[in-house]
Specification:
Length: 414
């Protein structure tokens, strides 16, 4: 009997777990090595766009995620005063992309991903490094505290400060500060109903979104020097910066305990990698293409990576050709999205009052050109479909106006 090929995934985040599920379903023996003692994800909420949901369909989790959708009605973008710049709705997003945004807690998504893996596949509290990336004639070697592991494939899913990326490409520039910091928290929803929104102010952004479990996810960003911390508390810092913005922002800040609030500087990998593989090792997620959160695509792109990698890694196939195909499919698409996210960050964090006035006027004017004008600008991201069943087979519906075959081929052609 032919031995089952072995894959080792370094990192138990969204991309790593997604890759493990996809590879396991394709016939690989998979081990996920996570250095944390348990999977308690750092972060708060995550928005899964239609492209990420379609990737989750391939992993058998798409409908379970859609069932957690809380956004049913209107939403949009607002100015600091509360004036609506753009009004959208879940129905308009469905019409434009073939689906709408699902906001959920990261812990919920991690739990769903873990549930799709065999229990024995996950090893927490295990530090790992790539000792040898391998080659066509030899397996890769991963070193852990319990000894070395030989693998036919290694997946580096160890985040923005990826040691796997450094091992593969030691001369490549490291991620850099994007110029702003971010706060996030999840608290019980306020008594007064609110409309989901993202608000653009002077040098900063605020977002408020409901979760299906009766809580609300709030996030904020502001242009600040790297490495800074509030002199008193992060709650006090939010009050200083956002308490005079429109409702429900002041009330949400007041309701949050300081320990609820996470603060992290935002960094990005501005110099793209030429390939997301070397030897028998592939990179996914932030390890490959860390981006700003301005388009909400970091987690979605990690899930896309996972299913595309699994698609190219059919057991018994040419592994080198499969890894080359993975890079060819993912590098152009993710490089484009990293750059678009960086441009969006610059627009949302303007400090000049005249430029802000021009920005808001242009956004409002664009909206008057048609109800879906703003949504269409996001379509080349959100209408992506995976290159495998159910979408590649044409048995599911792609975004309106696009065939599944054209969508599948697009990433490799850009």
């Amino acid at each position: 009997m032919k031995q089952q090929p072995r894959a080792v995934v370094i990192g138990g985040g969204i991309g790593g777990l997604g890759a493990a599920i996809g590879l396991h379903a394709s016939g690989w023996s998979v081990t996920v090595l996570e250095r944390a003692p348990s999977l308690e994800p750092v972060g708060s909420g995550i928005g899964l766009a239609p492209n990420g949901q379609r990737a989750l369909d391939v992993l058998g989790l798409g409908d379970r995620v859609r069932a957690l959708a809380a956004w049913q009605g209107d939403g949009g973008m607002r100015a600091r005063s509360g004036r609506w710049l753009v009004r959208t709705s879940a129905a308009e997003a469905e019409a434009a992309y073939g689906g709408s945004l699902v906001m959920l807690h990261r812990a919920t998504l991690i739990g769903l991903l873990v549930s799709a893996l065999p229990a024995e596949a996950l090893r927490t509290g295990t530090r790992a490094r790539v000792a040898d990336p391998g080659a066509a004639d030899r397996r890769a070697v991963v070193t852990t505290g319990d000894g070395d592991i030989e693998a036919d494939l290694v997946v580096g899913a160890d985040g923005i400060d990826s040691a796997v990326r450094t091992a593969l490409f030691p001369a490549h520039p490291r991620p850099v500060y994007a110029g702003f910091t971010a706060w996030r928290f999840v608290i019980p929803a306020p008594d007064e109903p609110f409309t989901p929104h993202e608000t653009w102010g002077r040098g900063g952004v605020w977002g408020t979104h409901p979760l299906r479990d009766g809580r609300v996810y709030a996030y904020a960003t502001a242009r600040l020097p790297e490495g800074g911390r509030a002199p008193d508390s992060e709650k006090a810092e939010l009050e200083r910066r956002f308490a005079d913005w429109h409702d429900p922002i002041p009330g949400l800040i007041a309701a949050a305990a300081n320990e609820d609030i996470l603060r992290n500087d935002v960094r990005q990998l501005t110099t793209p990698l030429a390939a997301y593989h070397r030897g028998r090792v592939a990179l996914v997620g932030d390890a490959a293409h860390a981006m700003t959160p301005s388009l909400g695509q970091g987690g979605n792109q990690a899930i896309e990576d996972a299913v595309v990698l699994a698609h190219h890694m059919a057991p018994g196939g040419d592994l080198a050709a499969g890894l080359a195909g993975y890079s060819a499919a993912r590098v152009p698409r993710t490089t484009d999205i990293v750059r678009r996210a960086a441009r969006a960050s610059r627009v949302t964090h303007l400090r000049s009052a005249p430029l802000i006035a021009v920005r808001d006027t242009l956004i409002s004017a664009a909206t008057r050109l048609g109800p879906n004008f703003i949504l269409r600008g996001f379509s080349s991201i959100a209408d992506w479909c995976p290159p495998q069943a159910p979408y590649a087979a044409g048995t599911a519906t792609a975004a309106p106006g696009r065939s599944t075959e054209a969508t599948v081929r697009e990433p490799a052609q850009r």
